[in-house]
Amino acid sequence: MNPDSSLQAECERLRRELADRERITESALKRQADVLEVVTDDFQKQIAELNAQVLASSKELVTSRQECSSIKEQSQVTITELQDEIHRMKCKFTEEESKYKETLSCYQKRIEGLTAQLDSMKGKTSATVMEQSVALRKLEEKLKFTERQLLDYQQSVLLSAQQAVHNQIEQVSELADDANPVLDKPALLEQLKQQRIAYEEQLERLKVLESERNSALETQHASVDRIHQLEGELSSIREELLSSGSKQEELKNQLNAVKETRDKVLAELSQLLSELPAVPGLSANSERDLAQELRVRIGLLEKHAAEAETHRDELKCQVQTLQHERTELERELALLNASHSNQDKQQDLETVLEQLEVTRQKMHDMETRTSNALKELENKSVELQKMQKSLDETLQQRDQLQQAHQQTMAMLETERRHLQERIRVAESGEQVQPSSPNDQLSRLLEEKNGAESQVAFLNSIIVDLHEKNKELEDRVRSMLFLEDSVSRQVNPAVVNSRPPRRWCDHCLVFDSHETEDCPNKPDHVENGFKPRRKLSALVSQQPSSRIYCDICGVFDKHTTENCTDAQTF
């Protein structure tokens, strides 16, 4: 068999194998480039979506902060207004309590005065009745004695008159029977005049005694009427005391109603203040609903306050009416119940103070929760900034990978051109300088070994690119998964920025030096290519096992186990 034909056949076979390998490499690189483009497009879309989501989240965060600040300001204004309203209502209740105390003290004093007056009137009435009964008995006895005297006097006067008449008749008869014709008419007339005067005096004395009797009877009747009048006044005073007791009960009921209204208003205020701290943790719609509900509750509270004011005005009018009607009675009643009422009022005041202290504590807790919610919002903002930073680093990594891919493609293209040039040089070397079959065979073996080593190296690069793409896809999926998950605390791993690998076109070695800095520059011949090494050198040169790192993709530096992850393509 002709060695030239076998050599040519071998060259053709190697050329075809090299072409096949180049086509496989190109197709694999094209597929890899397509996959990278698809992944890049998907990744860019996902990054755009993430950027949009980050912008939307930032806008929502800014809006929520503004709404939270506005709601916080509104809540502070509302709390201030409620505190002012509580203070005003407390002042009003204090004034009303002082007024009620004064009114009750006045009523109690009036009742005590009336009671003392009643007691004094009772004493005076009893003394007067006793005195009048004694005087009446004396008058009756005197009247009876006077009547007896009058009767005796009348009888004596009648007897004396009858005796005088009989004496006169006897005298007249004696005078008539007297034979003495001389009659002393003037003396007789004088004696008759004197008797008539004495009789008239006795009649006047009878009239005086009768008038005294009539006056004594009138005095007795007046005393009886006075006794009846005093008894009527006593019964009316008793009725007024009973009515003042009923008025006291009614006033106590009204005061209890006012206390219940006050307790109801304070309970509603406490409930409203207890519901405020849930504001910072809700969404915008929930916050608006809560603000609306808060306004409704404030309206209801104002309505209750207006009703309380109306009821207070009505009670004030009623109290004024009661003051005009029974001012003194109610003052006395207040003095009677002063001690018990003061204790109740003191207890109510202590209860109100305790409720105000609880309200202040709730307000402090609500402010604490609001500050905590703001801190949580700030933490979420920091997490979003970290996510944005991670996305930026991922984009930078993608750009680096794309740049590395472009450099790899350029390097592979350079290798391909270099191989083609070497093939052409080999063909031209066969035509221009025919050498011995041993030299040609050595060159072909050298080229075959070089091509196989380059194909193995390209296959390792392709495998490494597949692994890098797979790792990149896993990182993108993990980032998307971490974005959609609840816990955003785990950040994606940050890949170190590594410089591109150095390559020498003369030595065909990575990571040693650049082509321009090659210390073993060959001497060029006339055609511009370096001479081939001898077959003896190739035969004597044993294949060495080069160390390789699967992570960095580096030969002759370190193994995968000793990788420091500080280099890339």
From TrEMBL:
Domain of life: Eukaryota
Residues annotated as domain CLIP1 zinc knuckle: 546-563
GO annotations of cellular component type: microtubule
Localization, UniProt: Cytoplasm, Cytoskeleton
Record flagged with keyword Cytoplasm: yes
Coiled coil: 72-156, 189-219, 248-275, 305-429
Cross-referenced InterPro entries: CLIP1_ZNF (IPR032108)
Principal localisation: cytoplasm
Annotated protein name in UniProt: CLIP1 zinc knuckle domain-containing protein
